[in-house]
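Appendix C reproduces, verbatim, an entry submitted by the partner laboratory led by Prof. M.T., so that reviewers can inspect both the input and the predicted structure.
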Amino acid sequence: MSYQLSSIKETLQATVSSFGRLLLIGSAAFGIASYANFGHHKSYWNGTIERVQTVDFNMLSHMLPTKLSQALIAGDTQEIQRTLDSNYGLFGLVVTDCTSSQSDCSQNVQYMSDSKLPWRKLLSDDTLSTSAYDVLRDPPPMYPTGSYADSRDPIRNSTGLVNTGRIIGRVYYVRGVPPSFFAAYSKWISAWPASFGSDSGTNRYYSLTTGLFGIGGLSAWMFMEMGFAKRRKHIVQLSQQKERLALAQSALIEEAQDLRQQLQERLTENVQLIKEQSRNLVKLEAAQKKYQAQESGLRASLQILQERLNAQEQRREEEKQQQIDLQTAIDHQSRAAELLKREIADLKTQDLEGERSRQQTEEKMAGLRKEQETKQKLLDKNTTELNQVRLALSLTNEERDEGAKLAEILRQQIEESKLQQANASTEHQESQKLLRQIEGEKEEGQQHIKALETKLRDEKKQGDQLKAFVDGLSKSSLNLFEKKIVKELNTTTRVQSAAWSLLDQFDVSSRSRRTASMFTDCIVIGDSFIAIIEAKNYSGKIYAEGDTSNSVWLSLDHQKHSMEIASCWGNNPYKQVHTYVSGAMQLFRDNSSFLSKNIVKEIALYGVVVFPDNADLSALDTHLGAHYRITQLGDLVDVLHDLERQARQHPSRTKLSVADVENCLYGRKSLKPLRRSAA
């Protein structure tokens, strides 16, 4: 609704400006045409008409003296008057009683042409003395005594011809007096449009010249309007481009915010992941250290077991060598026993040989038995030792198998530790790779954010420049009616004595709640009140469709054409000025943080809607509550005085200086501490 009202207001302003330019160009064209018509007027009366009269005088000088002389001789006064009136009084034909042949003559006018033209009123002896004349004779003259060499020749020359007879009078040829240009032009204008098609006299030249310059002015106006229309179209295109840029900027901002939020979430997740990976890495490093310690312990145990296995293997080899030695000794003893058995057999065989040999043999056998018992004991001992060795060897093999199994288990644990260490190293490498990837994504995201922020700043800068350009094109200065209001207020004693201060084109939009600019036409600042004035340059009858506060306002001209009164905020000027007053109050609160709140609440703000003096406000309620007025320009100062008296009648009203209020509106913080004073 606000955009439509703004568009309607701009259209009305453009239409008013167009009609203003048309009026200006039309006035200039009319002025130039009038100057040209002045030349046509002079050329017509001082050129064409004067030459025509010269021709008429030249013809009359050949005929009129004879005719008038005959009529005078005959005493036919009626014929004389009819003859003199035959020129319709456009110029003067005057008959006098002069009977002298000299130029200077004491004479009286006997007859003259009947006319209401200026020459008749201006006729005098001086006029006759400068006019051409012919002498009337008895008998009537036959020859012309004077003639004009050319129609452009203003001097009448003598023909040299001589008439005889008694002089009975003179006939004077008095030229017509041309009307003034102002009189003729005013007469032509007053008879318009009927005079526009007239082809008589100078009217034809006036119409032709004015028409040509009017067409030229209209063509120039149309050409200018085409240029202004193109410029307005360009402004609209710039405004639309500004809106598109604003939308694109908003979209970029939203996209950047979404991307920033996504990156922030991604960074948060990555930070959590990094923390988790760091914790896992610490655990892996602790496990790795634990596995390394276990590996070192297992390696030490394996080394000890390997040393024990080597010692057992060496002991086993020694026992094998000892077993071989014992087996060799047993085999040697077995061979020795066989030898003894063979020897016994031989001895038994030789028993038959002699007693001595048997005794020797028995002694030898006893020795051999003793030796055999000794050897048997030794063999039993060796067998026992061999069994012990075999048992020891058997136990050693079991220990070796257990050691081998333990070594295998240790090797498996070492392999598992190495595998876990390798897995931990792989996971560590993957974690490092993931960290590097996350850092890369983070850096890429930051670069993208920086690029978006740079682009956003460029778009914002371009949008601000365009906005400034469009605002510079669209923002208008004070119009004529607003200037008239400011001029009227500047002539008041309150303003001249600095009791009131005036601000124009002041933005009252709140800095804390700003959505759009709100430039006021005029603000009147007093020591106890602020009045915001909204100028509406509409004439005719001003009325509302319904109640004054909430309905649309219309203006009705003398032709019964109604027009909606434009308003930047709301559907009528009351709502517009109400919005300005609310904005000023909020602005006052925002800028007066250094004042006590009870003082701020006591400042009186009023809104006044002003129409021209030719506006009829009888159909409106001119008092809208205690703080809003509708008035004409002629009553504006009285309304402001009433509002000031109303503000001062409040018992707890705070009286500030004009500078304090103005500084507070501007947000200047150079105010001195304020004190209450009686209003």
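The chain has a mean pLDDT of 77. Additional entries are available on request from the coordinating office.
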